[in-house]
Amino acid sequence: MGKNLNRSNRSKHEKFSDILRDVETHEVTINEILIKTYILYDPLKKYLTFLIQQGLIAYRKGEKRFRITQQGFHALDMYTKMDELLVRETRHKRPEYFASFP
Please, which residues have CB within 8 angstroms of residue 75's CB and are 6 or more apart in sequence? Predict the structure, then answer.
């Protein structure tokens, strides 16, 4: 899951990343995803539908479980790299306008 403690401010991409991380290690039910990602049920259904349509996760109707696909592993890797880059950039760069603050 993402490192953002204030989960209400997560972007859609951070939520996608959190879902992919949740299904990364084993197949999970929608309730398990709800508990681990802190995403409300209705928005979660929309996110899961989108991820399925994009081929990033798969749904097994018989078991009612979600699993990550190879394409999902690739997307998760890209999210992780982007996360690391953004955190590194914001840690090391100080915007010029900071100098004008008292």
Answer: 16, 20, 54, 56
DSSP H helices in 2-102:
12-23, 30-37, 41-53, 70-92
Using alpha carbons, select from 45, 36, 30 the residue that is nearest to residue 18. Answer: 36
Tokens at 32, concatenated: 């398990």
Distance between alpha carbon 91 and the CA centroid of its chain, in Å?
Answer: 21
At 27-59, the pLDDT tens digits run 999 999 999 999 999 999 999 999 999 999 999
Structure tokens at 99: 């100098």
Residue type, 39: I
Hey, which residues does 59 pair with through a beta bridge?
66
Query: What CATH class is the domain 12-91?
Result: mainly alpha
Q: Which residue has the tokens 């991380």?
A: 21
